[in-house]
């Protein structure tokens, strides 16, 4: 990577990012950069159209009519849209038809599911289900489905262009890494289930003989008897039941009698059979991923289909082709990457390869706004680039032109703590928008501390809703997330409040009994 070829711009929400991109592109066009030599990627088609329109307008304002007319020759669009154009242009080198058609994402998922069904035999499903049960993945009757794990691994593998060899290595390393937390493997000399049965009987009899009628001891004995019954019926316990034994509680005077059993149960993680079950489960999931991807590739090749991930892999391959690089080296004047905090590993590799040949390269992003992790985006990649390339102070957009001062102050307080690993100047913004005298408060604090039981609890949310309805033009609000110490009561409170609840990503935040509502 050439450091000098990449300019990084850090742009928080409302900091004038599009304005800055417009200024950068216009300045380069004014200085001789060819419009036909521009590749600019944005995350949405709407953002691409807005950028092109702003640049064209600015060029016309400055009397640069020729450059404005020529702007239609620039490649300004989404990553996928630009990838398709490059693939069609270099179709021969990529080994695809010039009329290549990319499958829609929903069609790709349907075809993958069809491929998955081809390799999922009944014995295979039963084997994985059995291992999942033994390991306690389904112990609470939760909606656990190992197929989701398969899908996550498939998405990760495709987003990173992992081939079969890499997945085979990952299968082995996945267990080895986990094994370091289990301790040294023990090949038990005898029948550990028989010894467990003996200890259960002995412990139940010894504690019962004490005559302890406390609630905690009675509950503990009841749990031990249930486990003993399961062991007698199956001749073994699920591994999560071994863990349960270690958590059973009795009164202080019976604790010593329980200890031999719990000490024995704690050793289950080192048993060869337990570690073998873990290894087999991990291997089975990876094998499904490997086989499903192989079947999916065969399915697409038989029908001449490619999807967006295939397109990205092909474009990346093109950038290793000397003849393609020679053409682009003559043509590419400017590479501009917007929202690169949501860049996937393959896309990042494409941008890095293009930056090696582009005369100018400008990347804009904000790690706080990375929202597409479920699509393979990895915000840590942005930090790695920032560390490697560096960023000048003048390229950190520090002013917020969009939000009111109180909202900027609130978000600064939240984000500076949430992103403590980032320099403050890359997180906090200075409020530039001024409040008008007729405006009400930007933040409303909604307190959950009450003196008179449930009456206020029912009335207060209603009054907020009424306030919103009375002045809808000035009161744009929504409850983003409710922080409350009594998590089990959130659903009931939400229903009583009759306020919309918007699901938010699960982020570790210190609980607070006081959320706030913000007005733009």
Could you characterize the architecture of this molecule?
The chain has 4 domains: 3-99 and 307-397, P-loop containing nucleotide triphosphate hydrolases (Rossmann fold, 3-Layer(aba) Sandwich); 105-185 and 273-303, no CATH class; 192-270; 436-518. The chain contains 21 helices and 10 strands. The chain has helices at residues 17-30, 45-61, 65-70, 79-89, 91-94, 105-119, 122-134, 146-159, 164-179, 192-210, 215-234, 239-247, 255-266, 272-303, 308-318, 322-331, 345-357, 379-389, 405-418, 455-470, 490-497; strands spanning 6-11, 38-42, 75-78, 334-337, 360-365, 396-397, 399-400, 430-431, 443-445, 516-518. The longest helix has 32 residues, at 272-303. The protein is elongated. The two termini are 41 Å apart.
Task: Work out the radius of gyration.
Answer: 30 Å
Q: Order of strands in the sheet with the most strands?
A: 3-2-4-5-1-6
How can the largest sheet be summarized? 6 strands, parallel
- Any low-confidence stretches, pLDDT <50, length ≥5? 455-520
Total separate domains: 4
Pick out its properties.
55% helix, 520 residues, single chain, six-stranded parallel beta sheet, elongated, 21 helices, two-stranded parallel ribbon, alpha/beta, disordered C terminus, Rossmann fold, 10 strands, 4 domains
Itemize the secondary structure elements and their pairings:
Blueprint: E1 6-11, H1 17-30, E2 38-42, H2 45-61, H3 65-70, E3 75-78, H4 79-89, H5 91-94, H6 105-119, H7 122-134, H8 146-159, H9 164-179, H10 192-210, H11 215-234, H12 239-247, H13 255-266, H14 272-303, H15 308-318, H16 322-331, E4 334-337, H17 345-357, E5 360-365, H18 379-389, E6 396-397, E7 399-400, H19 405-418, E8 430-431, E9 443-445, H20 455-470, H21 490-497, E10 516-518
Parallel strand pairs: 1-5, 1-6, 2-3, 2-4, 4-5, 7-8
Antiparallel strand pairs: 9-10
Helix pairs in contact: 1-2, 4-15, 6-14, 7-14, 8-14, 9-14, 10-11, 10-13, 12-13, 15-17
């Amino acid at each position: 990577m050439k450091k000098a070829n990449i300019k990084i711009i850090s742009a928080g929400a409302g900091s004038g990012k599009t304005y800055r991109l417009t200024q950068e592109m216009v300045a380069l066009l004014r200085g001789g950069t060819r419009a036909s030599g521009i590749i600019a990627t944005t995350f949405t088609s709407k953002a691409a159209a807005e950028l092109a329109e702003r640049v064209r307008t600015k060029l016309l304002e400055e009397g640069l009519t020729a450059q404005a007319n020529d702007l239609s020759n620039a490649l300004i669009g989404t990553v996928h849209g630009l990838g398709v154009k490059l693939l069609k242009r270099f179709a021969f080198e990529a080994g695809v038809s010039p009329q290549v058609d990319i499958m829609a994402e929903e069609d790709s998922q349907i075809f993958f599911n069809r491929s998955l069904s081809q390799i999922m035999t009944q014995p295979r499903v039963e084997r994985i289900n059995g291992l999942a049960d033994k390991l306690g993945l389904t112990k609470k009757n939760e909606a656990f489905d190992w197929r989701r794990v398969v899908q996550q691994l498939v998405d990760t593998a495709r987003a990173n262009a992992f081939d079969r060899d890499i997945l085979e290595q990952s299968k082995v390393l996945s267990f080895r890494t986990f094994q370091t937390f289990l301790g040294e493997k023990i090949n038990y000399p005898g029948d550990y289930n028989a010894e467990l049965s003996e200890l259960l009987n002995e412990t139940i009899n010894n504690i019962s003989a004490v005559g302890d009628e406390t609630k905690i001891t009675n509950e503990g004995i009841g749990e031990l008897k249930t486990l003993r019954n399961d062991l007698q019926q199956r001749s073994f316990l699920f591994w999560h039941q071994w863990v349960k034994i270690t958590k059973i509680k009795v009164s202080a005077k019976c604790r010593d009698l329980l200890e031999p059993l719990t000490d024995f149960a704690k050793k289950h993680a080192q048993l060869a059979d337990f570690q073998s079950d873990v290894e087999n489960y991990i291997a089975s999931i990876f094998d499904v991923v490997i086989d499903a991807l192989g079947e999916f590739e065969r399915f697409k090749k038989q029908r001449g289909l490619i999807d967006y991930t295939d397109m990205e892999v092909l474009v990346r391959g093109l950038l290793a082709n000397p003849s393609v690089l020679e053409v682009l080296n003559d043509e590419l004047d400017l590479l501009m990457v917007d929202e690169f905090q949501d860049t996937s590993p393959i896309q990042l590799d494409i941008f890095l390869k293009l930056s090696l040949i582009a005369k100018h390269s400008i990347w804009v992003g904000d790690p706080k706004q990375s929202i597409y992790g479920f699509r393979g985006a990895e915000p840590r990649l942005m930090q790695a680039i920032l560390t490697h390339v560096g960023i000048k102070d003048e390229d950190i957009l520090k002013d917020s032109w969009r939000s009111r001062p109180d909202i900027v102050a609130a978000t600064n307080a939240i984000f500076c703590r949430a992103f403590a690993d980032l320099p403050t100047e890359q997180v906090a913004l200075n409020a530039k928008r001024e409040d008008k005298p007729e405006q009400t408060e930007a933040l409303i604090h909604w307190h959950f501390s009450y003196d008179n039981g449930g009456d206020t609890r029912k009335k207060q949310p209603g009054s907020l809703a009424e306030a919103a309805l009375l002045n809808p033009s000035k009161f744009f609000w929504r409850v983003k997330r409710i922080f409350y110490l009594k998590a089990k009561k959130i659903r009931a409170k939400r229903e009583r409040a009759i306020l919309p609840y918007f699901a938010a990503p699960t982020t570790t935040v210190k609980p607070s009994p006081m959320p706030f509502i913000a007005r733009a």
